[in-house]
Amino acid sequence: MGHHRVAVTGERIDLAAIAAEVGDAEHGAQVIFAGAVRATNDGRRVKAVSYDVYSPLAEATFGEIAREAQARCEDPLRIVVIHRRGKLELGELSVVIGVSSPHRSEAYEASRYVIEQLKTRAPVWKKEHYEDGETEWLRGHALCRHG
Amino acid sequence: MIEVRVKLFGAFRKYGDGREIVVELRERSGLGELKSALAEKLRARHAGFSDGGLLASSAFAGESAILSSEVKFERSCSVAVLPPVCGG
Fold first, then answer.
1. Over its length of 147 residues, how does chain A's per-residue pLDDT go in tens digits?
2. CB nearest B86 (choices: A83, A115, A138)
3. Looking at residue A119, which CATH number applies to its domain?
4. Are A4 and A66 in contact (CB under 8 A)?
5. Between residues 15 and 74 of chain B, which touch chain A (CB distance below 8 Å)?
6. Quick check: is A61 in a domain?
């Protein structure tokens, strides 16, 4: 049976807990993708990133993406998607996607599908805090379904 | 007239109280009228409002889905304005 869980959280993400959650005796592959706050973006030194999230729609979107990932695969998948909100320091995990499947190719493919779709469809926004004291909301992908 | 409470996210947080802006619309107005009313309110409250491009590239949504271009607002409600996204 497949298993999907998605969430937006203000707490640190526990990688070991996610690995345990996607674990399955019938699954020989686990792929855990973790996105972290990095120190440089477009040549500017970053000291933190604030994540703004429209949580109910974000969780609905994560769920939709997880179901799509499952629909692209014949084998049952276990998928967990967790995204942070709030201000994160360098190195903190902003998003973790755990996928397990009987074989590795399906797990890799589903993990890649989920993160690429999440980045262009989920209602999440990043404000970078720079070492020089300035801040900036990053531009991203328009969600418009209307003119 | 009806009231539409527009929740603010991302780059729109710097406007109003950072949480929401309320605009008045005629019943059965659509997204075009909502965008125009929101832009007018932002210009009235913030001299030098210059994010018309941001507003033009933004979507509107409820809690479970992005609103379609066909939506008509029949009664007072809440929506969210969603500037271009960059999660992960």
1. 689 999 999 999 999 999 999 999 999 999 999 999 999 999 999 999 999 999 999 999 999 999 999 999 999 999 999 999 999 999 999 999 999 999 999 999 999 999 999 999 999 999 999 999 999 999 899 996 543
2. A138
3. 3.90.1170.40
4. yes
5. 31-32, 57-69
6. yes
